[in-house]
What does this fold into?
Amino acid sequence: MADKIDELVQSALARISPASSLEDISKAVEIAKTASENARTGLEIRTSSAQLRFESLKTWASILVPAVSLLALVVTIVVQSLQLQATRQQAEDSQWRDLLSSLHSGLNDGTSGSISDVSLVPRLRSFFNSPTYGQQAIDLSKRIMGKIVNYPAFQDLFGTVFPSQDAKNVVDLLDINKILYFTWLDSIQTCGRLTEQVTMPPSNLTDSAGICSSRIQDKDVNVILKDNAHSIEIIAKRRQLTDLNTEMTFISNEIFNAMRRTSAENSKATVKFAGAFITGADGRGVDFSSADLSSTVFNYVNLANARLTPKKYDSFNPQDTQWWEVAAIDQGLLEILINNYYPGYFAGEGFFSDIPLTKEYYAHRIASLCQPFRALCEDQNLRFASNFVIIKAH
It folds into this structure.
């Protein structure tokens, strides 16, 4: 375009000669001027277009630069967050392994498989909200709760694992009870071995717990253990056994509370007590119709107004328990109990009661339970021994 304008200007100027008139010279100059102005206008247009493109780029740059910077910042934060999470996860993994290692060591340190480390519970509880180990920590807590021989720590963990009372908890509660029972038996055996290291008055040898028996007061133990090389170990074991007894009583009552809720919800699922050791529990009014009481021990259990009509009852063993105070009973189970678990069947057994236990009262209770009444339930056929102890309930 610029070349054509130049040609036009040169052509106009070439026409000027000394003989040219003033008018011709004026036209040629006018043509040159117009061509120059056109050239300048074209340059301005091109310059303006370039300026517009430049301004446009500046505008986009002012938008993109902060956006890119923000994106880079976001990426940096995300990367740092992921690195922090990875670091925390590594730390949590390490803490979990340390916990399992210390737990394994605690269960294999020769202490009858019991756990007395008071730091274990808060360490275990710290994992409950973990996305990775939360459920594992709760499941593990249920399994090891029966190994803890420290009642405050036991209650602390129990309250965290079972924050609300729920009928469905009865299965877990029974599992804890059974593990506690084996831990208690191990402790009894340990106490038996320790008893062989001391000289005890003959009157105290009737209890299977020996020197650890709650029947022996602490002041008497101090006298018995005077100058004994095993005194520290024995006293520690006595305390552990006391805690175990308290834990077993606590969990037994929680089981019965769960049974009451199970009855209220009309649950038809079988509650398998089999192998449980229920002790010191308030079973008043509990309905055992959904229970399998096979190989189950009731020890010092209050069964007043309970419905003792379980689905199964093979080898059911009510020790130191007034089973005849129930409101209803399976008739086959009644025959077994009349023949094998009458008052005084176990020499020296004790019953919590505020009223005397006589043959007449026992016969009266059996008559109310025996439906239909039959020869087995007649007074002259009922066995009754007087070698039991009545312990005031209040």
Summary: Strands lie at 271-272, 277-279, 291-292, 297-299, 307-308, 317-319, 328-329, 350-352, 389-391. The mean pLDDT is 82. The longest strand covers residues 277-279. The radius of gyration is 47 Å.
